[in-house]
Every structure is written in C-alpha cells, then in structure tokens.
Amino acid sequence: MSRNTGRSGAGANKTSKAGTSDNYSVSQTQADIEFSKLSANDIVKFIADRTTDPIVAEALEVLSEKIRLETHSAYEAEKRARTIVVMYHCGYDGLCKADYQLPPSRRHDDLVGKVRSLMDALDLECMPSEVFRMGRPRPDKPRLVKIVLPSTYFWRRALANARLLPSAGFRNVFIRRSMTEDERKRE
User: Fold this and answer.
1) Are 41 and 65 spatial neighbours (Cβ–Cβ below 8 Å)?
2) Residues 92-103: pLDDT tens digits?
3) Residues contacting 179, CB < 8 A, separation 6+
C-alpha cells in the first residue's frame, strides 16, 4: 500500500522509507498505525525514519535520550520512595555481619533472617523486594542495610513504627528513608 499525500498527479502516491521497528513497515499509512500502542522510542524511530531534515533527526536523538533518562529517573525515584536504610551499631543488636568465613549466599541468608526479625519488630506483614548491605566490607565500620519494600504503604508504616525498635530488642538500630546524595548532603 502506498502513502497518499493528498495531492493529485505524478507525485500523488509516495512510499516512505522502511522503519527499523517491527511495529510498522514501509507500506503502512498513518491510518494503519496505532501510535498509542507504540513505545515512545518506536514513535521517535518512526519519525526519524521518515524525516530528511538533519536538525529534526538530531532533535529526535536528543529527545530519545531524554525520554530514556527521565524514565530511569522516575523508576529510581519510585523505588527510593519505598526504600528504607537501616543503620546499626555492632555488638549491641542482632544485625551485625555474619562470619566472613561463610559463603556469600549463607551471609545473605543470615541478613535476610535478621531483616525478618526487624520486620516483625516494625509490625510489617510483608517480604522486602530487595535486601542488601551497602558499600564495601570494612572491619572498623558496619555497613548500612538497604531494604526495598513492596509499596509505599509499608515504607510509611516502617518509618512510623521505628519507635517500637528499642522495646523489641533493637536498641541501637535506626531506620531512615533512602535519600539521594544531594538529599543526604542537605541533612
């Protein structure tokens, strides 16, 4: 099928050059393509494949990169909005590091078990999406523990129930929200 530009005469039917996405082809007209079902990148590629203006092509490349960065940034912000960071002082509570003679999988299992106890103390009925220690191991300093919760509801509840930790045996365990580097510098 050829693309009809609405003009009559010799140049009335024009075919655009091939697209790079599987979602559209040379023979499709605008009416055949359901733009609402294409991803943002596919729409950008669709336009780029049909333009001969180098300035428009460059603008589309920049737009595509901005879309990627903003999507990633939004994802990170959403994840950070349901993440808590646990700080603790070793020797007092049950969050100290497992023996480094253990294999990494056993050390992680040990950490997950300790986080489960912490979740019980915070009165949270959920399993974290992710649990891990941050940074490199250093013998003189305990590592922060990052816990990604399944929703912001549990995040709010964890921060609100932090006051319950000392009475549950976690006297020197503190939780805070996850923050960007800039947010940490401001606090």
Assistant:
1) no
2) 555 676 677 788
3) 80, 85, 187
User: Residues 158, 85: contact at Cβ < 8 Å?
Assistant: no
Judge contact between 137 and 97, C-beta under 8 A: yes
Question: Strand 173-177 and strand 83-88: pairing?
Answer: antiparallel
Q: Please name the helix (run of DSSP H) or strand (run of DSSP E) that holds residue 84, with its range, or none.
A: strand 83-88
Neighbouring residues of 71: CB distance < 8 A, sequence distance ≥ 6: none
- The second-level CATH assignment, the architecture, of 81-186 is 2-Layer Sandwich (3.30)
Instruction: Tell me, yes or no, if the pTM score tops 0.90.
Output: no
Cα 175 from Cα 71, distance rounded (Å) = 28
The token pair at 142 is 């305990």
Q: Where in the chain is the domain with CATH 3.30.70.330?
A: 81-186
